[in-house]
């Protein structure tokens, strides 16, 4: 059946301005890091994207190696574009990234011009797009000069393959250095994508201040701490959970300390009339410097639950104080070593 987007999809949608740019992003964006690859059910992913767009989610976030296998999420997305979303391309913000390992050899990783330009070309082919709206350098590169990496992003914009550029997991100092280079080139540095959640608050130590000062937006990934800030782990590690698979999310993260944190936070969420996941998303969005919260979804029902966080974004002073008692470092920041890479490498 031909997909026709919901007529009133923007009536209740919430958008926020991305830094000092002309772009508004939905307060909640959909990421395809997990659950949309070649080992996942194609029609389930398709239904999730349809539902997201019907509810006003206009931003879909990908990367070259999302899957598994690598590239398969972008392959699927290209098919979903052809099946459903091609008529709505002008309503969508589509992003991709490169910076982590993608292909064998010395040119399939990190931040060289060769890798970034080739990776963007491949991503466009897989997604069947002429351009992406945002192309990110996915992580800092301690060896490649920052001028080369930013020069590659500039080249992608000037060649028409990307409209805007961004970075992910850069420290405040490295973000400022990247901004200076891009500004000299006249390249639109739109956005930074850091990890941020109630159990991983590193962005509050200078990054959000830096982004506000230079006029760059912020899209927070993993606001649910890869599902830890949900009802899933309140009673331990379920058999089918991501932690049980021992991949990017270690079962060690479901420690006694973290269980105590999430149970206390869950009590606060229930008092607010929200699920823990909804409160975790709303909490990330409490700071207006955060343009969007980037979520994943395994089912349409899970997506709807997360999007319903927008029904209550307000916190009073007492709620924030009680949350701060439990929203402390949980040892879950898998990207800490990346954000610690200095500006001058």
Note the topology.
Blueprint (H helix, E strand, L loop, with lengths): L14 E3 L6 E3 L1 E4 L10 H13 L4 E3 L10 H14 L7 E6 L14 H15 L4 E6 L8 H13 L3 E7 L3 H14 L3 E5 L13 H8 L2 E5 L20 H4 L10 H17 L3 H9 L7 E4 L4 H8 L9 H10 L9 H4 L6
Parallel strand pairs: 3-4, 3-10, 4-5, 5-6, 6-7, 7-8, 8-9, 9-10
Antiparallel strand pairs: 1-2
**Oligomerization category of the chains in this entry:** single chain
The stretches of 5 or more residues where confidence is low (pLDDT under 50) are none
State the end-to-end distance.
Answer: 53 Å
Biggest beta sheet attributes: 8 strands, parallel, barrel
Count of beta strands: 10
- Our Rg estimate from Cα atoms comes to 19 Å
Number of helices, where a helix is a run of at least 4 consecutive DSSP H or I residues: 12
Strand order, sheet with most strands: 3-4-5-6-7-8-9-10
Shape: globular
Explain how this protein is built.
With 345 residues, the chain is α/β, with parallel strands linked by helices. The chain is 37% helix and 13% strand. The protein has twelve helices and ten strands. The protein has helices spanning 42-54, 72-85, 113-127, 146-158, 172-185, 207-214, 242-245, 256-272, 276-284, 300-307, 317-326, 336-339; strands at 15-17, 24-26, 28-31, 59-61, 93-98, 132-137, 162-168, 189-193, 217-221, 292-295. The protein has an eight-stranded parallel beta barrel, surrounded by five helices. It has a two-stranded antiparallel sheet with strand order 1-2. Helix 5 (172-185) runs parallel beside helix 6 (207-214). It is globular. The protein starts with 14 loop residues before the first strand and ends in a 6-residue tail after the last helix. The relative contact order is 0.13.
């Amino acid at each position: 059946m031909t997909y026709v987007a919901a007529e009133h999809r923007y009536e209740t949608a919430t958008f926020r301005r991305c830094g000092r740019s002309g772009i508004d992003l939905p307060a909640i964006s959909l990421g395809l890091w997990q659950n949309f690859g070649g080992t996942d059910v194609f029609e389930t992913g398709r239904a999730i994207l349809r539902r997201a767009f019907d509810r006003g989610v206009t931003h879909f976030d990908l990367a070259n190696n999302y899957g598994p296998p690598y590239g398969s999420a972008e392959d699927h997305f290209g098919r979903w574009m052809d099946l459903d979303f091609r008529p709505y391309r002008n309503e969508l913000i589509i992003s991709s990234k490169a910076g982590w390992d993608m292909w064998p050899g010395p040119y399939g990783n990190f931040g060289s011009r060769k890798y970034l330009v080739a990776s963007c070309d491949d991503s466009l082919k897989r997604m069947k797009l002429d351009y992406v709206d945002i192309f990110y350098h996915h992580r800092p590169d301690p060896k490649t000069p920052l001028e080369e990496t930013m020069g590659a992003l500039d080249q992608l914009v000037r060649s028409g393959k990307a409209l805007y550029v961004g970075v992910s997991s850069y420290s405040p100092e490295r973000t400022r250095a990247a901004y200076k280079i891009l500004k000299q080139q006249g390249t639109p540095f739109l956005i930074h994508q850091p990890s941020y959640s109630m159990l991983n608050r590193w962005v509050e130590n200078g990054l959000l201040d830096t982004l506000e000062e230079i006029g760059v937006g912020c899209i927070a990934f993993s606001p649910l701490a890869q599902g830890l800030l949900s009802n899933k782990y309140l009673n331990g590690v379920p058999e089918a959970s991501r932690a049980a698979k021992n991949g990017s999310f270690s079962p060690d993260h479901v420690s006694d300390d973290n269980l105590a944190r999430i149970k206390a936070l869950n009590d606060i969420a229930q008092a607010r009339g929200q699920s823990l996941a909804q409160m975790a998303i709303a909490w990330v969005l409490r700071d207006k410097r955060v343009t969007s919260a980037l979520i994943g979804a395994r089912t349409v029902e899970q997506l709807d639950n997360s999007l319903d966080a927008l029904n209550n974004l307000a916190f009073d002073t007492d709620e924030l104080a009680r949350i701060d008692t439990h929203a402390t470092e949980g040892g879950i920041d898998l990207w800490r070593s990346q954000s610690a890479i200095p500006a001058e490498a």
